[in-house]
Design goal:
Elements: H1 2-7, H2 9-16, H3 41-48, H4 57-78, H5 88-100, E1 105-108, E2 113-118, E3 121-126, E4 131-132, H6 136-140, H7 145-153, H8 168-174, H9 219-226, H10 280-299, E5 315-316, E6 322-323, H11 325-329
Antiparallel strand pairs: 1-2, 2-3, 3-4, 5-6
Protein name: CCHC-type domain-containing protein
Region (Disordered): 190-330
Biased composition (Basic residues): 204-214
């Protein structure tokens, strides 16, 4: 309780108001042969009859009778081919105890008394009284890992130390009562008594509830707190830009229009962006400008050079006659 008080004072106060034998295993009675804290039997039953709950009382009882009759028959037929002394649920717990017993060390005092050690923890096991210091064997009547270690030391059968409530014989006794089938209403024996009338039908307002069961006091609050509630955005006015009202009920002056937004897709600037990489369009433009510059440099003469002078000596005119170089120059 001190640890619970350090974690939450509200939980400590809440648990203090409830008797300890209702929520803590160390105070449970050993008559129930179970270590369950929550009683899920009622939850399972409510889930099964969910289909019949909306029917009238007689129709609902008929549905429950057929379901119980069918279930008992299925359980009896299922045990016909089962081979074993202990039921599968208890065998599963025995296998878990077997795996956990590998980490324990026992010290034998008498054939029925043992001391089991595991690190700093130490337990006393009494095979004759079928008790263990961890209180698990006392509560469930199925050997825990400490008891399993001692049973294997005596080379005994662990199934012999399981309570008879978990055996196949007890299971068959539980489902032994037979639910006999019933004839229809038309085949019932007629009597002189007046026929029962159905209760007056009254249509209630609103949609009928489909909840599995009626929740306890304060359980609805816990259910609501566990849900994820979507937060609603505050209302913003489209005229003045303030919060708390809309454009139809606005009494303020209109706000100035916002500056125009830049069109186009923004440039990516992130840790994975390569600043030296250019787009396809930039590469095309740069290539076109480079080729134009190359063509221009070929067409234009080089700076500091004049046109080539005609060769000295005799030249030929259009008729093919040779003339002296001096005449050509003139």
């Amino acid at each position: 309780m001190e640890s619970i008080k350090m974690l939450s004072k509200d939980a400590f106060t809440y648990l203090n108001k409830i008797p300890t034998d209702r929520w803590s295993r160390h105070a449970f009675s050993t008559k129930s042969k179970s270590a369950m804290i929550l009683n899920n039997c009622c939850e399972s039953f409510n889930n099964v009859i969910r289909e019949a709950r909306s029917q009238p009382i007689l129709s609902m009882m008929e549905w429950v009778r057929r379901y119980v009759m069918k279930r008992a028959c299925i359980k009896r037929e299922g045990m016909e081919n089962y081979v074993g002394k202990v039921m599968p649920a208890a065998m599963k717990l025995l296998h878990l105890s077997k795996e956990g017993a590998k980490n324990y060390f026992e010290t034998k005092s008498t054939p029925q008394l043992f001391e089991v050690n595991h690190g700093e923890n130490q337990y006393v096991v009494n095979l004759q009284a079928r008790t263990c210091g961890c209180y698990r064997w006392d509560l469930t009547c199925i050997p825990c890992c400490h008891d399993f270690r001692c049973i294997m030391r005596n080379r005994a059968d662990p199934e012999d130390y399981v309570h008879k409530a978990y055996t196949k014989e007890s299971f068959l006794l539980a489902y032994a009562p037979v639910f006999y089938p019933m004839p229809g209403m038309k085949q019932w024996e007629k009597t002189k008594s007046p026929h029962p009338l159905p209760p007056p039908f009254r249509k209630m307002a609103g949609r009928p509830s489909k909840r599995k069961r009626i929740r306890a006091e304060g359980e609805d609050d816990e259910h609501v707190n566990a849900l994820v509630v979507k937060r609603r955005k505050p209302t913003r006015c489209g005229n003045c830009g303030d919060f708390g009202h809309n454009k139809k009920t606005c009494k303020n002056d209109a706000a100035p229009p916002p500056p125009p937004k830049k069109m186009g897709r923004p440039k990516k600037q992130g840790p994975f962006t390569n600043p030296t990489r250019t787009s396809k369009k930039n590469l095309t433009d740069s290539g076109a400008s480079a080729s134009a510059t190359k063509r221009k440099s070929k067409a234009a003469p080089a700076k500091g050079k004049s046109k080539a002078a005609p060769a000295k000596g005799r030249t030929r005119d259009a008729q093919g006659t040779q003339e002296p170089a001096s005449q050509v120059d003139d």
